[in-house]
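Cross-posting from the modeling subforum.

Setting up a comparison between two proteins and wanted a second pair of eyes on the formatting. Protein 1 (sequence, then structure tokens):
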Amino acid sequence: MKDNKITLRQFIEKFDNGEFDNNDVSTQCDAGWYDWFCKDSSLRNKTYSLTKKIKQLLPSSKINQDTMYVFFKNNCPCVGKLYDDFRFCDMETGEVIYTICPAVGYTKTFGRSEVWGKENDFKEAIVAGTWNDVLFFFLGVDKKKEREEKRIAVEERKKEKDLLKDEWAVREYLINQIEDKTVSSDNWYEFTTVKLIKISLAL
């Protein structure tokens, strides 16, 4: 990683402007790559996938886009497979505040999402679970629960639409009955009802 650190906000702006699109090592070092064991050609795609994760965390009150910077590492555990992490650091001191592993590569905990942080002096993982647990730690939002609530809401709206269709069918039937003189519309009440039904159907 080069010494010309940029704030997290500047990093996101540059990323969105396509400044890290090139696959060359120099560009990816500018993006924040510090150390890696994977192929150089893999860095660009890793930058993109990790930045998607970073963007999900930006609304957190734990993240300050103007006083923090981010860098990336690709790690090689003694027992396991290569895995990536990104680290939020203090711009002034360079101290790591959070290390976030979307999916660790150690054989024993393979695929687990972890957060390590300064708040407990990195003694143990603050979060050890799924990416949803990471989001909950930073945002206080349970994405799994949120998705389930959205699914239920969609089903409820569908039920309402189906009921509404049934209601329209009943109204159309009543109109046809009245217009076919099966039901008399001589009296004022019935005539008004027909008008109201026609108006509601037109809405």
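Protein 2 (same layout):
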Amino acid sequence: MKRRYWMVLTFLLVYLVWRVLQPQLMQAMASAHLLGRIVISAHTQGEKLVALTFDDGPDPRFTPQILDILQQYRVPATFFVIGQAAQDHRDLLEREIAEGHEIANHTFSHQDMVAMNEQQIALEIDMTNSLLERITGKVPDYFRPPRGRFDWRLIEACELRGLRIVLWTVGIENHTTRTPEAMADRVVAKVYPGAIILGHDGRLNRIKTVQALPLIITRLRAQGYRFVTLSQLLDTEKEIRNGEELWR
């Protein structure tokens, strides 16, 4: 009984430390590249850049509303699209491209990639890559697995295709935040230079994300942040690294 008590106490202590230090740890891991091939943020040397990303679209219920807000505030974003949804709503995908947003791969059918065999993994990636290449004229550079679940088979499959796996620093949607205001508060509190913000524009009801988005944009801009696409964010990191190498 005593041993069980200490085990529970130790677990709670470790969990609390992780919750308190998570933003700093995430930033340190990303900056030190301890995560290797998985991107969670960019090292921007303190330059206040942030990337907005959206998963699970295009969806006619919410994607147009999000695009309207991005257009109103002149904010670029990166959309990780589901191949099946892009196929069904090509007009929305074309609008995303026409308005200057970046398109990335979020599988074809939004299934758990870890539960798949190698052939299924390849099919999910390749079907969406081919579809997006036909519509956009280029193969996407980035891939995000559903729910952020991945293993070494997925990493190797993406590397073979020249795709970088991109996760996120902070999500707009969260089980503990019930209102758009609370969602915005949480994002603003957890963002740091080089952060990647995850939102969703499809599948479930995303009306609170739509309502939180203007709050997030205006509050981060008030703090001096500039919104860029994922490629622009990671290109900035590349330029900084090259500068450091030349300087050394």
